[in-house]
Write a structure and sequence with these properties.
With about 400 residues, the chain is mainly alpha-helical. The protein has 18 helices and seven strands. The protein has a domain of about 60 residues: Muramoyl-pentapeptide Carboxypeptidase, domain 1, CATH 1.10.101.
């Protein structure tokens, strides 16, 4: 503790110099890792001397919103009328290219466009952070050092291969690159030279970017015969413990339990497996999601993201808005309140993991278990009602 206090009392110039020394030592370790992977001295000389640590990258990695965004907020901010219209325009503009890729890789055009729209707003914004600086900064941070050391070296491998000049590339704060925001490891494993110019360029070639995304999706399990899922209606009296990605039933079984499509019609008889998702609790919209939804979540481990990609793809393909409507008055939980929910669940014997103010799978499962015992609708959705019951139970 004394050392920490003394460090804080050092002049800023000395602390900055110490940080620079630490970063320099880390870059030396990155150089050793690169040499172990066979990176040439020429590439190292062209890249390492210009690497700089970026404080904004660390801030972005640690960033936590004051309020927890609801699914409706997330969806309405991303599946906008403008984005839908632009997606349809690009569908028409790139029809032959997209359908050629679909025939080869099995991913329908509307899904490729939805990923493109979600990741970079159809290529209008790749990010503003130098890729190598971002990766080096995260590699030299203890939180995910091993992962980003690999990504940094992979970026050097891309540069050495000549497909892209990584020294000039800019991307997200986490080092994701190009039209569909590939990390270097994803690029090396799945990038495709679809336009046949001898290099796979996910920055400057839409054919390469689309085909690379399709190739990646196919590799991680995309089923060309299925859609991502659908909006459904759930009967008023329902066993809400059946909601969640851990429970799978055939569409026929869900039909027998009373689920209907978004327009109130019986679901089809089908042996396709699906899970019921309630991203905003039993009072919000409901979705029956299939295997391709899980594939989308391998791209980004966020339920809201995966639902937005699926819905945007549907809209681009000509389908309408959700039939569910957003409630007018919803008070958002703060991250502090989510942390309190997690702490109270843990105290009461429901393992929600380390309280961090982020609603993840463990938090939802723990909330659902408590709700079931407490006689609440066991939808796994943390809200102020759940918080009130937890406070009462913990007294």
């Amino acid at each position: 503790m004394l050392l920490v206090l003394l460090a804080a009392l050092l002049p800023l110039s000395l602390r900055t110099a110490a940080a620079a020394d630490d970063f320099g030592a880390c870059v030396s370790q990155l150089q050793a890792a690169a040499v172990d992977r066979g990176i040439s001295a020429q590439t190292l000389e062209a890249t390492l001397p210009n690497i700089r640590p970026l404080e904004r990258v660390i801030k972005a990695d640690r960033r936590q919103a004051e309020f927890v965004q609801t699914f409706w907020n997330y969806l309405e901010g991303r599946v906008t009328p403008v984005r839908v219209d632009r997606g349809r325009e690009y569908y028409a503009k790139h029809y032959r290219l997209l359908h050629g890729i679909y025939q080869e890789y099995g991913v329908r055009p509307e899904y490729l466009l939805a990923f493109w729209g979600m990741e970079t707003n159809y290529g209008s914004y790749f990010g503003s952070v130098p890729v190598l600086d971002a990766l080096a900064t995260l590699a030299c941070d203890q939180r995910r050092s091993e992962m980003f050391t690999r990504e940094f070296v992979n970026a050097l491998l891309i540069h050495e291969g000549g497909a892209m000049d990584i020294t000039r590339a800019r991307g997200s704060w986490a080092g994701a690159m190009g039209h569909t925001q590939f990390l270097p490891s994803t690029y090396l494993q799945h990038a495709v030279d679809y336009d046949g110019d001898g290099k796979a360029d996910v920055f400057n070639s839409l054919p390469d970017a689309f085909a690379s995304a399709a190739n990646y999706l196919r590799a991680i399990g995309w089923n060309r015969e299925q859609r991502w899922g659908r909006e459904v209606l759930v009967p008023f009296k329902f066993d809400w413990t059946l909601a969640g990605l851990d429970t799978k039933k055939t569409v026929s079984e869900w039909r027998a339990l009373g689920l209907r499509d978004a327009f109130g019609r019986p679901l089809p008889h089908s042996e396709i497996q699906g899970s019921l998702l309630l991203p905003q609790g039993h009072k919000g919209p409901a979705f029956l999601v299939y295997d391709n939804f899980h594939v989308i979540m391998k791209w980004n481990r966020s339920i809201s993201y995966a639902l937005a990609v699926g819905h945007l793809a549907d809209r681009i393909a000509g389908m309408g808005r959700l039939t569910a409507t957003q409630p007018e008055h919803v008070r958002l939980l703060t991250t502090a309140e989510v942390s309190e929910i997690q702490s109270l669940l843990n105290r009461l014997g429901y393992d929600s993991g380390e309280p961090d103010g982020v609603v993840g799978f463990k938090t939802r499962a723990a909330a659902q278990a408590f709700q079931n015992v407490a006689g609440l609708p066991a939808d796994g959705y943390p809200d102020h009602t759940l918080l009130a019951h937890l406070r009462q139970a913990a007294r």
